[in-house]
Amino acid sequence: MVDVHAHDRDKRREARRRYVFDRQALSVVAIATKVSEASLRRWKADAKAAGDDWDVARSANTVAGEGLERLIVDVVQDYVVVHQATIEDLRADKALAAAEKAKILAGLADSFNKTVNAAGRVSPKISELGVAMDVLKRLGEFVLRDHPDLAPALLEILEPFGATLGEVYG
User: Do 14 and 33 touch, CB atoms closer than 8 A?
Assistant: First the structure.
């Protein structure tokens, strides 16, 4: 006779391993293990209630395995992707006035600067990038205040220059 519970335990262990150590999304784990996402979410909740938080284990494994520096770089890189997409949206929005674009750009620069500075407190390399981003923020504020008509040109220049900063600061 087959022990159904042993099979279930094996599936749970595999699901946990894939989620925690392989950093797979639950949707991917569901496909790989042939277990529904709803069941995986229930297993995850049951494990947490029993003292085994899969998300905490996943974070700890990431920090231990790849190092805190790598994790911080990944977070900042994810932020940059969203930041750049927002700038592209700004550039494409022809109905938005130049002065309004400059305000939004200044807000984005401030947000980015805060993100990079927070990361830089833990990672010196990112801290250097934070100084560079602070200079760009101050430039954006200056243009907004003294030359709002130049905001579209600044937007056009900042995006490729951001790539240059990325190369310089890694």
Answer: yes
Max Cα–Cα distance, the chain, nearest Å? 81
Q: Which residues contact 43 (CB under 8 A, 6 or more apart)?
A: 12, 15, 16, 35
Question: Which amino acid is it at 66?
Answer: E
Give the burial string for 6-31 (b: 16+ CB within 10 Å, else e). eeeeebbeebbebbbeeebebeebbe
**Best CA proximity match to 119, nearest among 68, 44, 58:** 68
Structure tokens at 167: 């190369």
Spell out the domain ranges in the chain.
4-62, 67-169
**Is residue 69 a contact partner of residue 107, using CB atoms and an 8 Å limit?**
no
Reported as a single tens digit per residue, the pLDDT across 26-74 is: 998 999 999 999 999 999 999 899 888 888 777 766 655 555 666 677 7
